[in-house]
Structure formats: C-alpha cells, structure tokens
Recover the amino acids of this structure.
DNA sequence: AAAGATGCCAACCGCAGAGAG
DNA sequence: ACTCTCTGCGGTTGGCATCTT
C-alpha cells in the first residue's frame, strides 16, 4: 500500500509561481507565520498549491534575506570543505552560509562548482575569465608596453592558453584565495574555525590545527591507469560515536576503504578515488581550491602531492 | 538566421525521521 | 508499541536562456 499523497494532485496548481501567488503567500506568512501546518496553509489563503510547494517557495525564494547567485570564493571553499567532510547534506552546508538555501547550493554544486573544481569550466565562466584576463592584459599592457612577449596571441588579445579557471593560479595574478598566506595569516582561517566547530559537532574531523597536512599520492599515475583508490598515509584522528578519541595514524587501506564507503555521497569527487571514467585527470589542472599546492606543484613529476583543502575527508558520515 | 546543444535554476517527487495521538 | 501525519531533505526533471555551429 502506497503512501497517502500530501494533497489532491488533481486540484493543485503546479509549475512556476505567479507574482500574485507569491504576494499572497508572503504577506500571509509575514503576518501570521506558517501556523505550524504547511498542508493547511494554502487552503487558508486560497492558494491552489500543495503545502509542500508553498513551503519550498517560502524557504527558497520568498523568505527575507535570501541571496541568489554570485557565490564568492569564500563560499566556494566552505561548500567544498563541508562537501568533502559530510557529503551532500545541503541543509547543513546551507546553514553555514547565511542567506543561501540548500536548493541553491545544491544547484550551484551540480551545475558549476563541480565543473569549476575539476577544470570543466562552463562557457559563461570561461567568458567571464576571458574578459577578466583581457582586462588585466590591457592594464598590464598599459603599464609596460615595452615588454615584448613574442607571443602571437598576445597582440590579438587572445589568451595563449585555454584560459580555464584553474589556470588563473598559474598564469595570472592570483586573487586572494582562502587558505593562502597573506600578511602573516591564512585567509579564511575564521571560516575554517567555524567549519571545524561544525564538523566537531557532527562527529567529523578534528580541528585542522591539530592535523598535519596529509601527504597523499594521487590516484592516477601518468600513463598507467589504475583503479586503485588514493594510497595515502595520513595522520588523522579516529572517531567513535562520542567524538574524538585522539590522534592516530590510519593505515592507507583503512582510509581507502573509507573513501569507498563515502563514495556515493562524494559524487563528483570520484576522481579522487581513481574511479572516475576519465583516466587522464591532470592533477595540475585540478582547482587550487581542492589542491592549493597546485599553485606551485610541478605536474611533470607524474606524482605530486595533493591535499583536500588541508583536511582529510571525514569518511564515516551518513 | 536558424537549429541544435548546453547550461542553469525553479520546482517537483518520494523517502525518511520526528512527533503526536 | 504502534500508526498516522507532517516536515525536511536530497535527487531529479522540465523548461527557459544562452551559446555554438
């Protein structure tokens, strides 16, 4: 026997909300609140909508102080950190980003951030990047016209490389990225602190400050596709239900297994496990958000150190 | 200029957990 | 202890906008 539907599907309206519906819902909730019963709410205000739909509309769109689009680097980093640690628990991630909704973050992750992190940049972003580059180039040219580059593309204003997002760290002036050292302190440290606290609450990784940067071998060796997950020897903490037990060194196998357990939740990061379909991931192209070391790493070595935003994944969640 | 491809985002669907009765 | 209802969440889809060819 199936579950009773939450509303009469035949008599409710579906699809985009009209401004009138928005206004009705908004003014009612602002004056009366939800009354603790979303199912009854649409009838009260004469909306032919499912209660769930009203709730969603309010939470994702009508609620005060909702931000849409324009995610900052800082927000990118928070999302990434938390995603790596707790997986696709968007509501928890959203709770760390005031004004953002879980739906928004989920969409952003699925459509942009995932690609941005792994070099598959959207055309829109590429365009923005190119415009930024050209602007910078123009500015630089203005300052030092005498500088002859010999690059045929330079004179035409076209970047010499496919100017992907991740190239910025290598080819252009690097904007302040969280995690970078700047005037004696790391940008984003305050954010790290709040994430640490959250993860601690969730029984997740122990605070960064107590952890050394993990040294991991990338999953793929150039020219020798492997299905092996990353072989890492990471000093980290072990957890039990009560929280942190203390620092210990996890054998690579244990960590590898953990990666597998969290595999579903880490969809999109599967190249870290060596399980991606693309066997030719270039670690030098992985975003510095994922691997800050990339800004200086030499890809020619075939094996290079990488780390996941400073912190080993919390692998036992959910 | 037009058609097809791709990207983006709002909204829907269904499951799971919490809480009331 | 059990059932039922409601809420919250995450995955997925549909449709519009934009881009490419």
């Amino acid at each position: 026997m199936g579950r009773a539907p939450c509303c009469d599907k035949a008599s409710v309206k579906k699809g985009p909300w009209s401004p009138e519906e928005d206004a009705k819902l908004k003014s009612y909730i602002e004056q009366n609140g939800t009354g603790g019963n979303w199912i009854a709410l649409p009838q009260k205000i004469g909306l032919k909508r499912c209660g769930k739909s009203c709730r969603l509309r309010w939470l994702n769109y009508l609620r005060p102080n909702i931000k849409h689009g324009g995610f900052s680097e800082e927000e990118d980093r928070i999302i990434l950190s938390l995603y790596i640690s707790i997986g696709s628990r968007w509501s928890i991630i959203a709770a760390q980003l005031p004004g953002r909704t879980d739906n928004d973050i989920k969409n952003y992750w699925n459509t942009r951030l995932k690609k941005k992190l792994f070099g598959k940049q959207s055309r829109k972003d590429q365009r923005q990047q190119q415009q930024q580059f050209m602007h910078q180039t123009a500015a630089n040219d203005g300052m030092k016209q005498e500088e002859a580059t010999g690059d045929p593309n330079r004179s035409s204003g076209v970047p010499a490389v496919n100017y992907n997002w991740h190239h910025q760290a290598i080819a252009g002036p690097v904007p302040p990225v969280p995690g970078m050292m700047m005037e004696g302190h790391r940008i984003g440290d305050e954010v790290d602190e709040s994430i640490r606290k959250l993860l601690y609450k969730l029984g997740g990784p122990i605070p960064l400050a107590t952890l050394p940067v993990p040294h991991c071998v990338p999953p793929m060796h150039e020219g020798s596709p492997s299905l092996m997950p990353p072989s890492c020897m990471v000093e980290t903490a072990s957890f039990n239900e009560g929280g942190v037990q203390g620092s210990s060194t996890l054998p690579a196998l244990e960590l590898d297994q953990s990666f597998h357990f969290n595999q579903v939740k880490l969809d999109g990061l599967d190249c870290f496990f060596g399980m991606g379909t693309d066997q030719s991931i270039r670690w030098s192209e992985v975003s510095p958000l994922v691997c800050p070391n990339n800004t200086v790493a030499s890809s020619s070595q075939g094996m290079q150190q990488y780390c996941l935003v400073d912190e080993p994944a919390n692998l036992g969640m959910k």
